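Quality-control log, excerpt.
Job 1 of 2 completed; input and output follow.
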Amino acid sequence: MSVWSGRLRRRKARLGLHAPVTVRPQVAWHWRVLSLAGAVALGTVVTVAASQWIGPVPSADHQALEAQLSQLHAEIESQQQRLSSLQALANSADAQLKVERTAVEALSGQVKQLEADNARLKADLGYFERLLPAAAGQAEGVLSLRGLEVKRESRPAGEHLVYRALLSQLGRDTEFSGQLQVQLNASLDGKPVTMVWPVAGDADAAAKARLVVKRHQRIEGELAIPAGWQLRSVQVRVLERSQVRASQSTSL
């Protein structure tokens, strides 16, 4: 039995009875052609559909839509140009308004300044008119200091004394050259104190105090009052070579 079984195995091996077997169904050729044609038709349908969704073929509807889009673009561009023109006009009008507002503010400032100058001139006119009768009786060639007015004003830096007076010289053709001197008399902690302006050695103050007058000259200025001073009187003097030529005092 073993000899026959061995021979049987060898014969099966030669015949390939133990090799793997692949079974393929038998398909007729006409079915294969139909399947290929169906695949081609499906591809064509997909291609046409894709072309309609992605890149539609030009048609009457599409041409009308493109015409509407072109018209809308043109209208938008026209509106944009109109908006730009209106914006330019608005900017020009705004600039003109700013210029006019600036001009109005400048004119308003000038009017206020003119009003202040007019009020000051009226005050000066009244001041000089009060002094003219005294000047009419003044001897020729004599200096006269009249109309001394003083007042205290509060400033951020402290108290100040503001003064003004009229210096006149009649009947003399030559100019008078001299020096102005202002003396403050006050008390501090119950003791008398004095301050004279310009201070000796102060070249700038001496230059400001220099006087040159031929007929009339208004004298005015202000001085800082030292802290704690109680002013009692003020004296204004006109000096010529350290000699007093005219003076006037007033009490406070």
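Job 2 of 2 completed; input and output follow.
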Amino acid sequence: MIFRETSLSKNVVQFCRFLRKQNFTVGAEEELAALNALQAVDYSNNQVFRLALQAVLCRSRAQVEAFEPLFNQYWKELAKAVDSKVKSNEEATVKPASKAPSFRSLKSWLNTHQNKEEEQTALYSFHENLSQKDFSLVPADELEELMRTIKAISKRLAAQVNRRYKQTNKTGLPDLRRTLRLNMRRGGELLELAFRKPKRNRTRLVVLCDVSKSMELYATFLLQFMYSFQQVYSRMETFVFGTSLQYISPLLKQNNFEQAMRQVSAAGESWSSGTRIGESLNSFVKEFASRVLNKRTIVIILSDGWDTGNAELLRQSMETIKALSRKIIWLNPLAGFTGYRPETAGMQAALPYVDVFAPVHNADSLRRLSRWL
């Protein structure tokens, strides 16, 4: 049963969750964009309200075509739902309007009578809290929601990496930002037009994920991120390691994540075992480095750095990878804890060759990966 909330903002967030269950890619950022969009339109008009949400939440023609029936289905069901949060006191005092635009309750246009509820400014808490929660502390009833959030973050980041443009003197895609800059001294008259065109992106990503026992609480979330990223970004090679190295890019091309994970775990012996980072990276250098590394390659290593293997071998392998690649990013889930210091032998051997060392303990840390790609 869908419960009607007491403010438009809460109803919109709930509608976004409904769309996610219909396979729409709607994450925390899309929800915030939808709330911001409604501040710029007359949302008391049902058609304007629908079109505003459609413009923000749809990513393809198929989603546009499916949106209106889903919209009508949801809000019709909402109008019938048990209103568990509407205040019983019909004469409740209305707070003075704040400087920032606020959203009135849906009750005024769902039930077509005078709204006497308390006005509420659009707030957002559930996803912010979930995105900031350490992967190892997420309760079972929030796992599905978190996986959908990670999937949305991954696809958005992959699309950003894919979407690059450069200036061109030929007529092409309008470059609004550069056009405005060129015409600032003319009082705003657009006498010069600037254009851009897609820039061929030659960047290749190589991701090596630690799936040993010490990474057990994080590996599934990181693999979901890698799986979703590779669905959008084709120039990516993916490996997992524990006591040995396993190349899994072909397996991650499965249409179903759970099925892909079953095949990956069945094909390797490193899952939930010890960690030999040096031996695993040495295998990568010997078997794959010459084929997948060049000066346009960014290497991402996801590991806590707990190594029971040969630290000198790890150092030599990192030195080789550094020499052959453009950048090395090491993401460590332990780095998200206050007071953490990378003092293990493995991390001490690797750090001199790492360009970026950052945490990867929650959804927000995955989102911040965009600044280094």
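Post-run check on job 2. The first strand starts at residue 165 and ends at 168.
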